[in-house]
Amino acid sequence: MKRKIIIATKNKGKIKEFKKILSDKEFEISSLLDISDLPGINEDGNSFEDNAVKKSGHIFDLTGKPCIADDSGLEIDYLDGAPGVKSSRYYGISTPQSVKNEKIISMMKGAKENKRGAQFICVVAFTDNNEKKTFEGVCKGRISDKQKGSNGFGYDPIFIPEEFDKTFGELDEDVKNRISHRAKALRKFYNWFVKNK
Ligand code: IMP
């Protein structure tokens, strides 16, 4: 029998990836897009872990159902780790993503190849009636000098993962869902879940 689990997000890009990454596992997944009238969550924590735990705990409290949330973002070495935990709010929550990506490209204009390092981080938090647990995934890479490709979401068109020469925006979605920060965190979650739940 499939186990019911809620993903505590309305981000369509994330929901698609969660469903794909967990598709061969025994889960019946719903997201906040399937549940109406839930109050929003203020992501004001100082770390990915704080925010992920807050989101999954909040939705578990409201629904009583096992819940996973991810808090994720992009850390760019050249920008001292920005946008980091503020990735979704960087340059304004309603600023189009392509404008944010262009802003980063212009701030990094002239930065040499060895100064363009960056990493995506994802912390997945699980909450049920007797447990809270977190799992981290990191995907290292570099920032491209142009936006390229339309796959994925967010900063994907400017991020080139290690050992590739194309952005996540250009790479096949199956590649991203194998090597991404989210895939790594969810694999850790799943390995723990099957042993403990
Ligand atoms: P939050 O976890 O809801 O605070 O949002 C994280 C933000 O980080 C997203 O809105 C994206 O801008 C960015 N982000 C997180 N994961 C990814 C990814 O896999 N690709 C591109 N951008 C991402």
CATH fold topology? Maf protein
Domains, number: 1
Strand content: 15-25%
Oligomer: single chain
CATH class: Alpha Beta
Distinct helical segment count = 5
What string gives the helices and strands in order?
EHEHEHEEEHH
Shape: globular
Task: Explain how this protein is built.
The chain is α/β, with parallel strands linked by helices. The protein has one domain: Alpha-Beta Complex (Maf protein). 30% of the residues lie in helices and 24% in strands. The protein has five helices and six strands. The chain has helices at residues 12-21, 48-63, 97-107, 173-179, 181-196, and strands at residues 3-7, 27-31, 67-76, 117-128, 131-143, 159-161. Helix 4 (173-179) packs across helix 5. Inosinic acid (IMP) binds at residues 11, 43, 71-74, 87-88, 120, 152-156, 180, 182.
